[in-house]
Design brief:
Elements (H helix, E strand, L loop, with lengths): L3 H11 L9 H12 L4 H11 L3 H10 L11 E6 L2 H5 L2 H12 L12 E6 L11 E3 L2 E3 L4 H10 L6
Parallel strand pairs: 1-2
Antiparallel strand pairs: 1-3, 3-4
Helix pairs in contact: 1-2, 2-3, 3-4
The structure holds FE2/S2 (inorganic) cluster.
FE2/S2 (inorganic) cluster binds next to helix 5.
């Protein structure tokens, strides 16, 4: 069930569009911002508010790789696996992240702090390998730089 805050946020978005369904991505983002990910009940209620079927809204949600339909950690690490970053060292950087966090791509650390997700280009191709955590973009990644970044998020060095 949508919270009052989620309902109000979606209703406010609906006023910006001639057709309700045009607000579908914003509605999903509102739910995700408040819960961390989009559960089935939120999707159901949002679909009703948007005049869409659950299947239609789920199709939108699963099309966008930054709308999460499964639980994620408090910090989602989006690591670029597109060509420039791949050439510049995606594999060793990704392997280092996996070793440090003890997770493979698509998984969440045991303490629920980090989820590691490979994504297409982050627009930092001239500074590959690159990754984002929240709104922070990190480029020119090396294993040493990753250790320093993880420490910023409270992850202890080995
Ligand atoms: S290819 Fe990695 S940021 Fe563009």
């Amino acid at each position: 069930m949508l919270s009052d805050q989620e309902k109000q946020g979606i209703e406010a978005e609906l006023e910006n569009y001639e057709h309700k369904r045009a607000a579908c991505v914003e509605a999903l983002k509102i739910i995700q911002r408040s819960r961390g990910w989009v559960q089935d009940d939120g999707l159901h209620d949002a679909a009703l508010a948007l005049g869409m079927t659950e299947e239609e809204l789920d199709g939108v949600a699963t099309f966008y790789n930054l709308i999460f339909r499964r639980p994620v950690g408090r910090h989602v690490i989006l690591i670029c696996n597109t060509i420039s970053c791949w050439i510049m060292g995606y594999n060793p950087v990704r392997e280092h992240l996996s070793r440090r966090l003890e997770i493979e791509p698509g998984e969440t650390s045991a303490d629920g702090r980090f989820t590691l997700l490979p994504v297409p280009c982050l627009g930092a191709c001239d500074h590959g390998p690159a990754m984002m955590i929240g709104n922070e973009l990190y480029g020119d990644l090396t294993p040493g730089r990753i250790d320093a970044i993880l420490e910023k998020y409270g992850w202890e060095s080995d």
